[in-house]
Amino acid sequence: MYRSHTCGELRKEHINKEVTLSGWVQKVRDKGFMVWVDVRDRYGITQLIFDEERTPNGVLETAQRLGREFVIQVDGTVIERESKNANIPTGTIEVLVKNITVLNESKTPPFTIENETDGGDDLRMKYRYLDIRRNPVKNSLIFRHKVGIEVRNYLSNEGFIEVETPYLIKSTPEGARDFVVPSRMNEGQFYALPQSPQTFKQLLMVGGMDKYFQIVKCFRDEDLRADRQPEFTQIDCEMAFVEQEDILNVFEGLTRHLLKEIKGIDITNFPRITYDEAMRKYGNDKPDIRFGMEFGELNEVAQHKDFKVFNDAELVVGIAVPGAASYTRKEIDKLIDWVKRPQVGALGMVYVKCNEDGSFKSSVDKFYNEDDLKKWAEATNAKAGDLICVLSGVANKTRAQLSALRMEMAERLGLRKADEFAPLWVLDFPLLEWDEETACYHAMHHPFTSPKPEDVKLLDTEPGNVRANAYDLVLNGNEIGGGSIRIHDKDLQALMFKHLGFTEEEAKAQFGFLMDAFQYGAPPHGGLAFGFDRLVAILGGQETIRDFIAFPKNNSGRDVMIDAPAKIDEEQLKELHIKLNL
Ligand code: ASP
Questions:
Q1: 30-36 contact pairs (CB < 8 A, 24+)
Q2: In the prediction, which pLDDT does 582 show?
């Protein structure tokens, strides 16, 4: 028997008990005649004591030769500790060791296995198995497990069935490139790894499964952005015989359940806004509504004077930053530099200080008088002491820039509080999105999303204005999930493919299986998927998903521990009928 107890288990009531522990050496303190060793496992740390008087011959000497991260097993007696450690649950006792076995030695680890480590990101990724021994990473993985269990409990209680769908499939367009897998037995042919189980879950609805879910890996070969993983996990769901309202209710319930079970927080309010409103009020389709600073559109009150910059702009729009009227000239200049950074891309910024005495001071006093500025303050909901920041230009770009500024100011002012949770449904997304690069429309969500019935007639004439029965759940400025009511009619699906630029043959070759299935009694259906990694990170109060993934890839999509991707040998290439053209 390797252990009678874990290293996190022993307390006062175990005093005088004979125990066996196994674990890793965290620390050795050697006073010559007395040695203390901290032994650690997943459950905690226990102090072992060896001394000349009470420890049998040879055992003390073995303790003196231990190095960090050696794996040991000890037998001994639990005794009361003289100097107690209130910081750890086992801090009132120690184990007086009678017998020690070194189960395995260890090289000195490349970084310290402590809560605060001296290891940089790269080093920790390379030795992830050592990183996992550290509390922050270990606890994140345990936390992820807990969230997963709660998701399964909730959905299972609601009648959802977890069904596994295949990983070796044909491309499912979700807007990214596919990872492909060559088929040895089918020369020149490839599987694609699923960007999501989208078509399969729809086929499960045709199959009558009615309520499906799966905690599932998805694969997207995207240009990597910070904190994106090429493989990630979704809570994927689909339901039949439902309307949008039914789906929103179930997943509000899931979110409420998780916030309650995991965070102990009761959230009842899940406000809803349309995509258009989100863009107008926050310049963003995933607004953080934990704080105000809603956009005030100023065209009407700013385009009647000789200020050409504003007069030429499609949109003049501002936000009131609370309490920032006290900013010095230098601080404001810095802010202007910030919005001019290429990442934000504004050409400049106009500001108005709303002084405590009710007067205004602006960077455009030459053009606008107090009465004008008062109207700006009204439109942006500015109070005395606020700083109104105004941007102008092409509408959608300007909104995005002001949204970046809004988030930055909220961050600086400490308004994005980690312990506050504000969910929000964003509804009525556009069905199609114009893509500058390819000069054609793409499905904003995916090609299986149903247009709003009343907008179908606009498909030919104003495709950009067709709204979809599509929705996102946003939490604290992060999109945590999204989905839609699907098309379940073969002809409408064919029409959709046509609008997305597929010829009939192409649509048939790629999605014939789905359109065929729609001829055999496809029920009305819809669903959504939550990004599991992100959800776990947000519930865990952190922004980076990497900490919650056991073996993540780095920002260039590499696994630096196993060194993948990697070359494969000639023989393997030949079997796969692949000739490299490098
Ligand atoms: N398949 C979609 C996605 O991965 C989610 C859905 O529409 O259910 O975003």
A1: 30/63, 30/64, 35/60, 35/63, 35/64, 36/94
A2: 85
Write down the domain spans for the chain: 12-104, 139-272+424-548, 291-415
Q: Which of 174, 212, 219 to mutate to test the pocket of ligand 1 (most atoms within 8 A of CB)?
A: 174
447 lines ligand 1 (CB under 6 A): no
One CATH from 3.40.640.10, 2.40.40.20, 3.30.200.40, 3.30.1360.30 for 291-415: 3.30.1360.30
Q: What is the pLDDT of residues 223-270, one digit of tens each?
A: 877 788 999 999 999 999 999 999 999 999 999 999 999 999 999 999
| pLDDT higher than threshold 80 for residue 171 | no
For a mutational test of ligand 1's pocket, the pick from 193, 236, 471, i.e. the residue with the most ligand atoms closer than 8 A to its C-beta, is: 236
How does residue 437 score in pLDDT terms, banded at 50, 70 and 90? confident
Q: Please say if the pLDDT value at position 66 is more than 80.
A: yes
Q: What is the mean pLDDT of the chain?
A: 95
Q: Calculate helix-pair angle for 329-340, 395-412, nearest 10 degrees.
A: 130
pLDDT at position 108, please? 96
Which CATH fold topology does 12-104 show?
OB fold (Dihydrolipoamide Acetyltransferase, E2P) (2.40.50)
CA dist 90 and 446 (Å) reads 54
Ligand 1 center to 75 CA (angstroms): 54
Q: Domain 139-272+424-548 - what CATH class?
A: alpha beta
Residue 235 CB: number of other CB atoms within 10 A? 23
Burial (0-12, 13-18, 19+ Cβ within 10 Å), 228: middle
